[in-house]
Structure formats: structure tokens, C-alpha cells
Write a structure and sequence with these properties.
Blueprint (H helix, E strand, L loop, with lengths): L1 E4 L6 H17 L9 H5 L3 H7 L3 E6 L5 H8 L3 E7 L20 H25 L1
Parallel strand pairs: 1-2, 2-3
Helix pairs in contact: 1-5
Pfam families: DGC
InterPro entries: DGC
Protein name: DGC domain containing protein
Length: 130
């Protein structure tokens, strides 16, 4: 399953999305997931588009613009679940998550929580396929 974050350029929410996806694909579900670079999807890199076309994808965006979701769909990917970081912020009000380039301790904890959500979604979707 492909798990695609937004590019995360310029805002901490984008960095949180990217780090959550990396934790998911590299640590929590390395055998079930793969991530691809959004820039390669947007620029229609042949190899990346081939990997995504017709494949089930989960997206994690940093803002309501849904760049990742829209780009994956435009490339022919099937977005089976789409998340955005601000939807998970309410219980984290007052925390300082870091900057566009570096997460704080609170930011890493939040990224880990987001990765737990993604990992749970991967498990649920795989169970549905069986």
C-alpha cells in the first residue's frame, strides 16, 4: 500500500505529515507500505506514476488544500483514505510542535500519534482485502 504525505515545505504541519508517513513506512509497517515523493508524482515521473496507478493509497496532508490527495488522484492512484494533520490538533492545543524544518519533542510525539493512526488504517484496509 502506498502512503503519501504532502511535500511539507514551509510549515510544521507539512513536516509532521512527512515524518508520520516515514515512521509508518520505515518503522511500523515496512513490509506492507511504501512511500513515494510527492514532487515526483506532481512532475509525473514515469517510474513513480507506474507505481501509483490503480494502487490503493493513503494520503496525509498538512493542510486543507489536499495537495497530496489531489496529486495522487491525478496520477491515477486510488485514495482509499485521506487525512490532514489539522484534524488531529484539538487535543494538542498549546503544544509547540516545532518549525518547518525541525520538530520539538512535542512534535515528535504528535508525529508518532499520527503514524499510529496511519498504521491502524493500513491494518484495517488489509483486513478488508482478505
Amino acid at each position: 500500500m502506498k502512503v503519501i504525505p504532502c511535500s511539507g515545505i514551509g510549515k510544521v504541519f507539512g513536516l509532521l505529515a512527512r515524518e508520520a508517513v516515514l515512521i509508518t513506512t520505515q518503522e511500523k509497517c515496512p513490509d506492507q507500505t511504501e512511500t513515494l515523493c510527492l514532487a515526483h508524482i506532481v512532475t509525473e515521473d514515469d517510474e513513480v506514476v507506474e507505481k501509483i496507478k490503480g494502487q490503493n493509497c493513503i494520503t496525509m496532508d498538512g493542510c486543507p488544500k489536499y495537495c497530496s490527495k489531489k496529486s495522487v488522484e491525478a496520477a491515477g492512484g486510488v485514495v482509499v483514505k485521506s487525512y490532514k494533520v489539522p484534524d488531529f490538533l484539538k487535543p494538542h492545543r498549546g503544544e509547540q510542535h516545532g518549525s518547518a524544518t525541525a520538530l520539538t519533542e512535542d512534535g515528535w510525539k504528535f508525529a508518532e500519534e499520527l503514524a499510529d493512526v496511519l498504521s491502524k488504517t493500513v491494518a484495517e484496509l488489509q483486513e478488508e482485502v482478505k
